[in-house]
Amino acid sequence: MHNPVLAVIDVGSNSMRLQIARGRPDGSYAVIAEDRAAVRLGHEVFRTGKLDERAIDDCAEAMKRFAAVAKRHGAMTMRAVATSAVREASNKSALVARVRRTSGIRLEVISGADEARLICIGVAQGTPRDRELLLIDIGGGSTEVTATQGEEAVTSVSLPLGAVRLSEQFIRHDPPTRREQELVAEAVRSAASGISPMLVGRFKSAVGSAGTIGAVVNLALRKKGRTKGPRIATLAQVRDMRRLAARLSTRQRARLTDAHRADILFAGAALLEGLLTHLHVEEIEATNRGLRDGLMADLVQRTIAPRAGLNTNAAVREGLRAFGRRCGYREDHAEQVAWIAREIFDQTEPLHQLSTDARALLDGAALLHDVGNFVSYNRHHKHSYYLILHADLPGFTERERELIANVTRYHRRSLPSHKHGQYDALTDSEQTLVRKLASILRIAEALDRGHARHVLRLVVKKQRAKTIFECDVQQGSDLELFTATERADLFRQEYGVKTDFRARHVR
């Protein structure tokens, strides 16, 4: 379909939002419906570590309603993600299961890093490549601060601090006491110290997303008698709103702002003031764009407009490398294997007929295939599977991470088998994808068996029922060619072809 209807759901700590849009072939989209549910999943979770049973019930009912709305509009694909409150809850599996049982929706719990990436996509889309932005998103349980170059995140941090979390941890009185106000301010200063010093003083203005910032800025503008034009508030105005909120009770604040947000308005204003002060930012512009818009843009790209392939931007690849470095991987070997794997994939496209999305999964598997050495070299392919399965890999969905993990599992030793539980649990199409990608990765890893990067050039040719790999190599590459011949077993099996590895030695 050229113009499919797509749906996304942002399950936040303070509210839930649905967006339905019609995608276009050029990668843009037109929003055709939106909905919101005032469900506070963050209620009590930041103090008890568990989602409240009433909140789980309310969330499941809201998801059931969202599913019905999406179906009524003809949505063919849906992605739903949960953020901070669910991420930290010890009973998040109960919510995921309840939502699946009630609405049929598969709820995905994303990391703070991926939340920041999606917010960046949503807010910065359309920004010229030569323009830098500072984005601040204050949620119920976490706050994302991101510096961008055009549409791409350059530096990003997810702080474990939000308006709901601050309110529940430090405020017991209505309005808050002076001591409670001081504790909130101290917590904000402590969290802000986790922001890269490179961002301090670099921006005079920032763009703020999510409802909390919007509420603070809107209130500041109304106090100045402004109801039209850009939604921009200065640091001094934000400070005034924090002082105002500190004097008023929740009931009094509800007369000035969204009643659902009235009880967290003080904490939200204090958090925003603290961040702007720490970063030396003089003003902030509120935007209606946010995580749900990033979700939609990302889903459109995955579904109908994979411009350069799924998740191939520099920030996502650097995220893969960062995880590899934490596991102490051999970066030069990983880059060499990834390069060879991409070459084989591109040159054998008529054989495998896979999409650019599959290429990105292969690239991720190639870069991380050896991270299991962090646990032990023996059976490290299996260790790699488990590490990747539970890793924070911004830019990849939970299901994509599972596919990457399976591909790495088969880069050496045994071939995919239904005797292996993690492989047998995949769908038929996913099993086919894993076999095809693993067949390429096995050869690519073999061609750098000695970690010496001897392969300088690779040309893959089809000759009747034979696939020929012609390699320009340095002297002493016999180990690589011998191993590649052995590791081509899955490739031969999957495509019903013979393989031949030929070397041309170069200086």
CATH topology of the largest domain: Hypothetical protein af1432
Q: Class of the largest domain, according to the CATH hierarchy?
A: Mainly Alpha
Percentage of residues in helical conformation: 40-55%
Give a count of the beta strands, DSSP E runs of length 2 or more.
Answer: 14
Radius of gyration: 25 Å
Keywords:
single chain, 507 residues, alpha/beta, Nucleotidyltransferase, domain 5, Hypothetical protein af1432, six-stranded mixed sheet, five-stranded mixed sheet, 18% strand, elongated
Give a description of the structure.
With 507 residues, this protein is α/β, with parallel strands linked by helices. The chain folds into three domains: 5-110 and 292-302, Nucleotidyltransferase, domain 5; 126-288, 2-Layer Sandwich (Nucleotidyltransferase, domain 5), CATH 3.30.420; 306-505, Hypothetical protein af1432 (Orthogonal Bundle), CATH 1.10.3210. Helices cover 48% and strands 18% of the residues. The chain has 22 helices and 14 strands. The protein has helices at 45-48, 53-72, 84-88, 92-103, 112-124, 163-170, 178-192, 211-223, 235-247, 250-254, 265-279, 291-303, 314-326, 331-347, 349-352, 356-368, 380-389, 398-409, 421-424, 428-446, 478-487, 489-495; strands spanning 5-11, 16-23, 29-37, 77-82, 107-109, 132-138, 143-149, 152-159, 205-209, 232-234, 283-286, 455-463, 466-473, 498-505. It has a six-stranded mixed sheet with strand order 8-7-6-9-11-10, with helices on both faces. A five-stranded mixed sheet has the order 3-2-1-4-5, sandwiched between helices. A three-stranded mixed sheet has the order 12-13-14, with helices on one face. Helix 9 runs antiparallel to helix 11 (265-279) and helix 18 (398-409) crosses helix 20. The chain is elongated, with a radius of gyration of 25 Å. It starts with a strand and ends with a strand. The model is unreliable at 306-312 (pLDDT under 50).
